Amino acid sequence: MRLFLRLALGLVAAAHVVLASSPTGLTVHLERRNFLLNDDNTVNFKAVANHAKQLSHKYNFLMKKFKDNMGKDHPLLNALVEALSKRGEGEVGLTDIRSELLWAGEIQFGNSKFKIDFDTGSADTLVNPGAYEPRKSSSSKKTSDEFETSYADNTRAVGAIYTDDMVFGGLKAKNVAIGLSRSKFSDDGESVGIAGLSFPSIQAFPKKYDPIFVALMHQKAVAEPVFQFTLKPGTGSTLHLGGVDYSKVKDKIDYVNVNPDDGFWITDGSVQGVKTKFVIDSGTTLIIGPMDQVLEVISKLPGVTPHYNLDSLQATFDCSRPPTVDFEINGKKYKLDKQQASYGTSFGRCVLSIMGQRGLPMHAWVLGDAFMQGVSVVFDMGRNRMGFAPSA
Predict the structure, then answer these.
(1) Which of 108, 214, 231, 384 has the smallest C-beta neighbourhood within 10 Å, fewest atoms?
(2) Collapsed DSSP state (helix, strand, coil) of residue 330
(3) From CA 29, how far away is CA 95, in angstroms rounded?
(4) Annotated catalytic, 281?
(5) Could you read off the pLDDT tens digit of each residue along the chain, which spans 392 residues?
């Protein structure tokens, strides 16, 4: 039976960035726009499948970059993977403008301002041709280094690495690396590229180039080496830079240690008592995990029916009886509310926002938009830790 979905997520017609004062600095406000829908309001399954495929490819690629940079396999590498893919302070307002629901905001390199997707699951900053115009910037420098990345749909980004002055959420840093692709690799509407916010050990650029937030840290442009994602459906989503905005949380922030050498923002945790690892990734729409663990979790949820589709596993439930899904981190539970638990409907039943996927190179869960919409997450690069609290 073909699974037709009707998303319950609201659409935002346009995106904009607003800088606003807050107790901890400037804030970039984000608005969410969803492109997983067809014109008739059904889910674009090609886009959903492509998102899952892109995710598998992304992590396979970054696992390889980790080995290049660190000289060893990543500790999360899954040797038993079923099918490897062949393929001061400030705040930035984020806009979800991609079919994969990445969160975007404004950034400036030299005299070029543009919207870019902010991704806690990668480390490099890359843009389409024409987005960054080095000839219009007196501070631009073309380096002798080049970059090359590839994507699951055989799209490649190949080009030169430049350095230039950067303004990000009202914060400034000099000689920050940006990759200018020779061909268009990102067709995301208003967004023209991607900016990674993970640790340097998974970056594709040479080690001498700091990722954007690391550059702000090293140049002492941030009051604290901390950034904070608070994602919400519709309006009100923010990326806060240089500190913690406590107005975004309604409970004590619970911290867990992370290992910066791992590259990703990783923590131990469990779902419905199933122990696993979590990767917190703002560049992912759903909650995606290994097929076997997702099936085990679904079996623990009364009234939830699994549906297999090629290399993926999805599930549906009675919309009037949403399941209670508990994510536990450091002994603290975070429940998905009804809106988080479902991202659409199929024949009157809600579709679970948890998805199993073959091809992931690690036996870990990627917690994306569906999880982060209920939790404000603090990424503390100075103390090598992550903090979680229910969002206000």
Answers:
(1) 384
(2) coil
(3) 8
(4) yes
(5) 333 333 332 222 223 333 333 444 566 655 454 555 555 445 555 666 676 777 777 887 888 888 999 999 888 886 434 333 322 666 666 654 433 345 778 899 999 999 888 899 999 999 999 999 999 999 999 999 999 886 545 567 899 999 999 998 889 999 999 999 998 887 666 788 889 999 999 999 999 999 999 999 999 999 999 999 999 877 788 999 999 999 999 999 999 999 999 999 999 999 999 999 999 999 888 899 999 999 999 999 999 999 887 788 889 999 999 999 999 999 999 999 988 998 877 778 888 999 998 888 888 999 998 999 999 999 999 999 999 999 99
Q: What is the DSSP letter of 252?
A: P
Task: Tell me whether residue 326 is one of the annotated catalytic residues.
Answer: no
Question: Whole-model pTM?
Answer: 0.84
Residues of the chain with CATH 2.40.70.10: 26-82+100-241, 254-390
Fold observed for domain 254-390: Cathepsin D, subunit A; domain 1 (2.40.70)
Two tokens, residue 384: 């090598």
Catalytic residue among 117, 245, 281, 380: 281
Alpha helix ranges (H) inside the chain: 45-70, 212-218, 291-299, 338-341, 369-372
Residue 199 has which token pair? 């640790």
Q: What backbone torsions phi and psi does residue 202 show, to the nearest 5 degrees?
A: -110, 10
- Tell how many helices (H) and how many strands (E) occur in the chain: 5, 27
Reduced to 3 states (helix: H, G, I; strand: E, B; else coil), residue 197 is coil
CATH number for the region 26-82+100-241 comes to 2.40.70.10
Is 336 strand, coil or helix? coil
